[in-house]
Amino acid sequence: MRKALTGHGASRGSALGRARVRQPHALDVAEEHIPAEAVESELLRLHAAVDAVRVEMRNLRTQLHGALAHEVGEFLDMHALLLDDPELLQGLDALVRTGHYGADYALRLQRDRLASVFEGMDDAYFRSRIEDIDHVIGRVHAALHKREAELQGVAGEILVADNVAPSELAQLQSQGVVAVVTAAGSTLSHTAILARSLHLPLVVGAAESLQLINDGDVLAVDGANGEIIVEPAAADLRIHRARMRDEKRERKQLHRLRREPSRTLDGTDIRLFANAESRDDVAEAHALGAAGIGLYRTEFLFLQRDALPDEEEQFRAYRDLVLGMTGRTVTIRTLDVGADKADRTGLALTGEANPALGVRGVRLSLAKPGLLDTQLRAILRASGYGPVRILVPMVTMREEMLQVRAALDRVAGELRAEGREIADHVPLGAMIEVPAAAIALPGFIGIVDFISIGTNDLTQYVLAADRGNDALGDLYTPLHPAMLRLLHSIIRTAKMRGKPAAVCGEMAGDALFTPILLALGLEEFSLHPGTLLEVRRAIRAHDLSRLRSQGNRLLRAHDRAGIERWLAHASA
Ligand code: PEP
Ligand code: MG
Known about the structure:
By secondary structure, the protein is α/β, with parallel strands linked by helices. 49% of the residues lie in helices and 13% in strands. Magnesium ion (MG) binds at residues 393, 433, 454, 456-457.
């Protein structure tokens, strides 16, 4: 029977397919005992399931690339660590071996036991780890039952679940899942950001979906307005087909923008750089006419390995990137790892109580002798092959930039003395993502050549809202008057001093925010290549002088609703 439900549209696109309902991970398994002679085979079954999940996660890891890959990878690494936790594995074995419980019930007992440890903790962060336990145990449980079925045969299906981890999305898409509907979640979560860059339709917050949708129901999902029709009628199918036609037309129109300039209606060219790490990203950035690479996160070279990359290895990676961009500027960011990133090299400090506020980014580079020098040498050597800029993450104070500048000058002198070919001048810039740096910018803009605003971290630190915590729902968003005022002040300071300023956080890649950034005076964006054409289209649809003349009104907005009213008016 036809039913209509609504949630929030989190990633645009329409899909028609059969529902695959995944009930929440809390395992509702009845107590089950097995005879003594079945213990060994039950253990084998359990271990095979754990191994399958391990392989699944490893494969998933290798498929990841792109601007969000390191964040997605962090979830996977955390889950991989949990899966290898002796507490978890030995506990499970003991339950089967001595308790004679079936594997399913052992999983449930073990889940409840670990969850109760976290539940008792005062710290909200640790309490939220229960989600990770549920996720890992849920995967093992799924592998116990439908290992083959789950990995294949889902092409054309729409996943309906309580929530989906960012790490699962790429896998779901590669399996052919055409859309995802979740009962929980927010449109600004990492899952939603990732779905948008994967172009996978996603509806979040469809609270009744798990009750009202059954496995196998046919669903028509509209990821733009959050509408879900269960068992669509003829009229719904007609609407769906018309929408699919419109979307195809839109994709074609976007495709035509590949060779067009990113020029506003009144003739100002806006520079669109790409955030790129993988070869595919670089090739796409090049093909789409990106002005260059605005952010290359070097963490990728350092994570998921046991030894640090030496100068030669780093040099080759940077050089190839520079060659790949054939003369367009490449902005290489020095290392930004901290205890929050999965690091096996022993580089980052471990055991920090609050890694986001800990020794990460430039703090780590300056604290570890040799680390910064090696990286600067490798980058400078790459500058012999094409234009390169160096970007420093997590800058808080002028002194940090002075120290990096001194190291850069020293290392450049050494390389020249060795007879290496390096560029005469390699611009040095600061990421503005710590509020202190944003506020004190007038005091040190004079010692940097350019700035790049990291709105992902800036939003987290200005709003005291963990960027990785989906439970914060709508709180983590740049649509806050404090953020807009700060952005405006940063951009104005840079402009007054004649220094290029870009935004390289996710905000730059969301076309919804384009009119805001233009109104605030931004002329350079750095974004994932997958979103470049949508932002180009938004730029081409706006009159810059009209937007700028409305900038003051935007800055006077008192709240998110006021900003949204401004946006609706600006986009009318
Ligand atoms: C940011 O913080 O906005 C940013 C671009 O850096 P990262 O996402 O790598 O922290
Ligand atoms: Mg950052």
